[in-house]
Each structure stands twice: as C-alpha cells, then as structure tokens.
From TrEMBL:
SUPFAM superfamilies from the UniProt entry: Cystine-knot cytokines
Function noted in UniProt: Involved in gametogenesis and steroidogenesis.
Gene3D superfamilies registered for this protein in UniProt: Cystine-knot cytokines (2.10.90.10)
Subunit details: Heterodimer of an alpha and a beta chain.
The gene coding this protein: LOC115028448
Record's signal peptide: 1-15
Name by which UniProt lists this protein: Gonadotropin subunit beta-1-like
C-alpha cells in the first residue's frame, strides 16, 4: 500500500503549473572567449530532476538505478560583431531522463533542496 501511495504522490509531483524541476530544456547565458574578450551567448541546456528509485525502498544490496537529465547535443557557431572568427558553442536539442553515466556525471544521491513543487 505504501508503494502505491508513493507512486501516486510522485506522479502528482510537478504536475502543477509553474513547476519546472522535471527534466527540461532551459535557456541560459554561457561565457565564450572572442577577439573582444569574454562575451555571453544564449544557449539551451538540460536541467531538472529525474525520477529514481529510493534507496530505502529497495530490499537488496544493489544500488538503485539512477537517471540523469541529459539530451542530444549539437554545436552552433556565433559571429561576434568585430571578430573575423566565429565561436563554437554547445546547444541541447532535447532532454530526457537516461541511465546515469558515471564516467561524466556524479550519480550519487541528490544532496540539495528539492524544489517546492515536489513538496506535497
């Protein structure tokens, strides 16, 4: 019964308007070096949290499957006014929750505050 209630709460978490803690595309400024020094370019990145199994609900010695918010990336070139050479920067095209890759991501448990939209 507790598992059913937990699943229902997790499915409702983030369902409200304005909640953006789930994995999604977001636009941020990133610094790039140009001929005029550091410039800021707007790009898309993947941000947010993915559902995962809670360690205390697993009756096993295995660690739970962790998922991370990641996406398909490409590169674009921006031309800064006054510079002859463009700057290349990464752009996320879409975001999904995928199995965490320990080679380039910290796959440990989340240690920060959970957004208010997940609180019930």
């Amino acid at each position: 019964m507790q598992l059913v209630v937990m699943a229902a709460l997790l499915s409702l978490a983030g369902a409200g308007p304005g909640c953006s803690s789930r994995c999604h595309l977001t636009t941020i400024p990133i610094p790039v070096e140009s001929c005029r020094g550091t410039e800021y370019i707007l790009t898309n990145i993947c941000a947010g949290q993915c559902e995962t199994e809670a360690e205390n609900l697993i009756d096993s010695d295995e660690l739970p499957l962790q998922k991370s918010c990641n996406g398909d990336w490409s590169y674009e070139v921006a031309h800064i006014k006054g510079c002859q050479v463009g700057v290349r920067y990464p752009v996320a095209r879409n975001c999904t929750c995928r199995k965490c890759n320990g080679n380039n991501t910290d796959c440990g448990p989340f240690r920060g505050n959970i957004a208010n939209c997940l609180s019930i």
